[in-house]
Amino acid sequence: MLIRAWAYGGQWIGAGAARDEEGDERAVLAVAVRKPPEPLVVALPEDGEDVDWVDRLIRITGWTQPARRPDVDWAERESRLGTALPGDYKRMVETFGEGAFDGWLSLHQEPWTHLREDGLLMWAGTEHEDGYCWRTDGDDPDRWSVVVRSFDTGDTDFPCGTAEFVCRVLVDPHHPYTMAHYFDTHWFMNYQESD
Fold first, then answer.
1. What is the dihedral of CA 164, 167, 171, 177, to 10 degrees?
2. Mean pLDDT, the chain, as a whole number?
């Protein structure tokens, strides 16, 4: 039996396949009542507060799985790319693996380099063809800003790191690329089968 489910307002919607008594595979559609949680808030850090945005992202998505990619050879990858990568991005890849936040924002397992001539490395994308990139200014990748390259609006800069940007997209209703208007529960859809 394989069923995928998602939250939709006051309901859980599930679709998939299951075998009947004769062993024939049948389509399954399930709807169940759900109590939506209180909206999540991404509070601004206090002056001097060191925020672990990856931990916040884990809480926001309710992620409980073990690390999906703990064995990534970052030294080899960074050598091949010719640059170090932000630490929060590496933790996100190790923790979540291949998939998409809210089934929409796809986390690349290795940055795409086709925008390098513009000073950008793309670390995620959406079905709307928005590219989520870093502006690779400076030698410290943990200080690179996030840039959204959109076919609709061009480049928009955000002075924050990777995990903070994703947290804000998921729960900040005032963020220009927010998902908070569409979902009150957030998740990470892993593209690999569960163990």
1. 80
2. 87
**Both structure tokens of 166:** 């994703």
| Residue 99 belongs to some domain of the structure | yes
Same-domain pairing of 21 and 100: no
d(CA 110, CA 106): 12
Q: Domain span at residue 85?
A: 53-190
Alpha carbons within 13 angstroms on the beta-carbon side of residue 67 total 12
What's the rounded mean pLDDT across residues 72-95? 96
Whether residue 48 is predicted with pLDDT greater than 60 in this model: the reply is: no
Tokens of 73: 């050879």
Q: How many whole angstroms from its chain centre is CA 98? A: 9
Q: Do 63 and 126 belong together in one domain?
A: yes
Count of domains observed in the chain: 2
Angle between the 53-61 and 162-171 helix axes, to the nearest 10 degrees?
30
Residue with tokens 């380099």: 113
pTM summary value: 0.78
pLDDT in tens, 114-138: 999 999 999 999 988 889 999 999 9
Q: Which residue has the tokens 């998505």?
A: 61
